[in-house]
Each structure stands twice: as structure tokens, then as C-alpha cells.
Amino acid sequence: MNDGPRLFSILRQGPYLIASVHTALDDSQLVRFQNDLVERIGSDRARGVVIDVAALDVLDSFASRTLRDMAEMARLRGAVTVIVGIQPDVAFAMVQLGMDTGRVVTALDLEEGLAELDRGARDPTAQRP
Q: What is the model's pLDDT at position 128?
């Protein structure tokens, strides 16, 4: 499961982690991404995470559930999560198929995602349901 190149990156930006998915991930790669991100939250003592999915033109039910799970794991480790970059066609398909991101905050792009984290870091109760 941990063999092969990473198709995602996790970079630190101050108190935040920016996790970018570069191409579609299969289920085992999604689990690797999840494990790596949750581990980095602890090792970097991150207060927030932006997950950028702008490169994805498809988001299936397993990927949607995994993103929600990642956000919940991050919350349990003390970090707020914002998902950014959901493409219009992906958003349309998700709504048509009854899929969503649950209570995870979303934003249009990285800039808005970081601003959302800044708001959440100042007032942790400001997270939207």
C-alpha cells in the first residue's frame, strides 16, 4: 500500500497544512493520503488543514466519505479542515447522486480556504454546521 509515487502533497504553511491531490486516487492511495495527513497533523502540530481537490474531475462515494473521515480525524486531533477546489461538474454530480461533504467546510479556492481557517482559528465556534 505504501509503494509507488505519491499522487498528493502535504505542505506546511505556518500553523496550517495544505494537502493537494494531483490526480485521481484509487482507494488504497486515498487511504495512504488519509494516513499521511493524519500523521502530519500531529507531527507538525497543525491547527488547520486545507484539502485541495481542484485536480479531480470525479469524486466517487468512497472518496467523499474518505474526505469527511479525514476532516473528522483532523478535528479529533485539534485541526479544522476546509476542502477547496471542488469543480462545478463534480459539485453538480455530487448533488445529483445525493453525496455531500457532511459538516466539512468548503471554499472556492486555496485563498478562501486559508481565510476560512483564519476565521476558525480566531473563533473555533465559528465553524459552520
A: 45
Q: Quick one: which of 8, 13, 20 has its CA closest to 48?
A: 13
Nearest CA-CA partner of 50 in 100, 88, 8, 7: 8
- Paired with 74 in beta bridges are none
C-alpha cell at 95: 448533488
Q: Per-10-residue mean pLDDT for the chain, 129 residues long?
A: 74 97 93 96 97 92 92 95 94 85 90 93 50
What pLDDT shows up at residue 5? 67
Query: Position 44: which residue type?
Result: D
- For residue 68, what is the domain's CATH number? 3.30.750.24
Residue 83 lies in a domain: yes
Does residue 46 lie within any of the structural domains? yes
Answer whether residue 23 is part of any domain.
Answer: yes
C-alpha span between 28 and 81 (Å, rounded): 22
pLDDT at 42: 96
Place of cell 461533504: 101
Q: What is the CA radius of gyration of the chain?
A: 14
